[in-house]
Request: fold
Amino acid sequence: MAGTSRAEKKYQFLKLMHSGRSLKEIKALQKSASVALDDEYAKGKQKQSLLSLAVGWKSLTREGARDIMLVRFTPKSTLPATREEYMAQWVTTDAPIKPLNWKRDGNLVRQGRPNAPRPGSSAGKVAPTSIKGATKVLKDMQVLVRTLQGLVQKYGKGNIKGIQKQFRIIRKGIPKG
Reply:
């Protein structure tokens, strides 16, 4: 939900982590990852690398790779969900990305009268999120795309025969293993 408060998201995150469900159910994992990628827990540069990688990777799918020359690893200004939800869903599943439903489900459903919110109650309960390898993978993917774009510019010329010939040469040079 777009109007879900940060306190509600953080409450669900902590409850899911303590219940052990977050690693068992994909929806719970997406919710947990979405909050863990919030500015409060994750570093901005690491998040930016992960988002750039997610956006670029989605453009390399079968539908998006029709024109390799248009592949870019820059985050779009409009995403189908919040940036955190987009990255969380990209990391956890290959399903189409859409906004998460933050309605409480399972063991998160409140029994009885709701408690009053307590600002700052989550402080110190969650360690900072560490995003490892995203920057290196992003750089490697950018090099790969630039190489493919160079092949298209050099051998493309309207037909695919020249590119197929180059890929056969590359495949012959790769040892079977």
Remarks:
- The longest helix spans residues 134-156.
